[in-house]
Structure formats: structure tokens, C-alpha cells
Amino acid sequence: MFSKAIVRMPAQSLVDGITTAGLDEPDYPLALEQHRHYIDALESCHLTVEVMPADEQFPDSMFIEDTALLMPRCAIMTNPGAASRRGEVKQVSARLKQYYDKVESIQAPGTIDGGDIMMVGDHCYIGLSERTNQDGASQMVELLQAYGYSGSMVTISEALHLKSSVSYLENHNLVVTGELCDMAEFAEFKQLRIEAAERYAANCVWINNRVLVPAGYPQSTGMIQALGYTVIELDVSEFRKLDGGLSCLSLRF
Ligand code: CIR
Q1: Does ligand 1 come within 6 angstroms of the Cβ of 115?
Q2: In a 3-state reduction of DSSP, which class is residue 205?
Q3: In the chain, where the domains are located
Q4: Ligand 1 site, residue 245, Cβ cutoff 6 A
Q5: Residues of the chain under the 70 pLDDT cut
Q6: pLDDT value at residue 218
Q7: CB count, 10 Å around CB of 107?
Q8: E strand intervals along the chain
Q9: Ligand 1 centroid vs 81 CA: distance in angstroms?
Q10: Is the beta carbon of 60 within 6 A of some atom in ligand 1?
Q11: What number does CATH give the domain 4-252?
């Protein structure tokens, strides 16, 4: 179970965020409204939410998940694969020191984004992607092992991050789409397979037996509800325009 989350307010500079989506420019007032609803949803899952202020220097900084991996016994700061995002890490690290005695760091030339790390109990699956290289992933596995956890790597090519295509809903349930459906690494799970038309919904977030799902994906929502979860649908259209999903808007611990 999680008890806390940290989010970061979107900056007006979000219009300059990195994107491959090919959609319109994000609407800042609407992004703020959607972010407010996201915080409300976290609170409705009984999380205490710390809200970090926006930083105009970092257009992608509301995607705070990419800056750290939070495990019960340690926090591990990442070194994001996109050079424009590396400066986001320091401020988040300072916040995390309030909560963690142990705050470790991935060192260059290793790179890794939090969006490439999926926690399943004491194990982390790490996506080798455009943002996460072998060195960053190897450092992460070594640090995990030092704290009694384990990690393994999965090479991905279809999406920005591992968790763009897979989400763990606890109880052995995995929401999965695309190239990850047939990977041996995920064969042991009960898979809820998301069809291509709804692939954006593969990034959903389990929080204390509720699941945050992006609005507008009825088949995915139906499958998750059929497993007995309470679903909270959230419109995150303005973050989707920047390749962002639901999980990347918070750090949960
Ligand atoms: C980026 O390209 O870094 C941002 N525009 C989107 C990051 C999304 N993060 C995530 O899915 N974990």
C-alpha cells in the first residue's frame, strides 16, 4: 500500500516539452485543471500529496516519475536520458531526503528514466529504451541488489518507456500491450491485453486497490473493472500531447 505521493506543478513552458505525439500544442489552463483533478484522485486513494512548485526552466518537469525510483528501503535518483531533463533530478532529490535516509544516484554515462522501471514486489523490470541505456540499467540493478531487491532488463522498441506499454495492478495482474504481450518475462502474469486502438490505456496506475485509467478507453476500463478494481478515469489529454501518461505525473511511496 502507498501512503504518499509527490507531484510537480506544470510550468507554462510545458508547451516546449519534448514530444513525438504529433498532436496540438498543450493548453496550459486545461493542463492545470487536469493536474488538479489528478491530485484530487490521488487524495481519494488516501495518499497525502506533496505538491512541488513549477520550474519554468524544465518544460517536462511535471513528469516527476522519471526522476526517481522509490522503494520501501531506499530512493534512487535517475539520470534522465533526455539532456534537457537532467536538471530536474536535484530538486526532487532534495525533497526526497525528507522521507528517505538513503538516497542513491545513477551516474553518467548511465541514463535511466523512472518511466522505464516497473516494480513488482521486490523485483523491478527495467526497460532498455531510447532513454535508458545498459549502463544506467546495470547501475540500477546493482543498487537494487545492495538493498535486497532484484532487477532484470527488457529491451523495448515500440514506445517511449517500458510503462507506456505495461502496468502492474498487484495480485499478479498485468495490463499489457504491443510487443510486451508475447515476452517470456511476462508470461507468468495474468495478462489483460490492451488492443492497439487503446494502447494509451496500458499506462494505468494501481493505488491501494483503485486503478487510475485515462478517460476514453472503455474496453480497457471494462477489463480492469471486471477484475474487481475500482477505476478512476482521468482526462490527461494535455499531457498525452507531450508523450506523458498517468504514471509519470507522480511518485508514489
Ligand atoms: C519526455 O519526453 O520526457 C516527456 N515529454 C514525457 C515523459 C513521460 N514520462 C513517462 O511516461 N514516464
Answers
A1: yes
A2: strand
A3: 4-252
A4: yes
A5: none
A6: 98
A7: 10
A8: 4-8, 48-52, 68-70, 75-77, 103-105, 117-120, 123-128, 150-155, 166-168, 173-177, 190-194, 205-207, 210-214, 230-234, 251-252
A9: 10
A10: yes
A11: 3.75.10.10
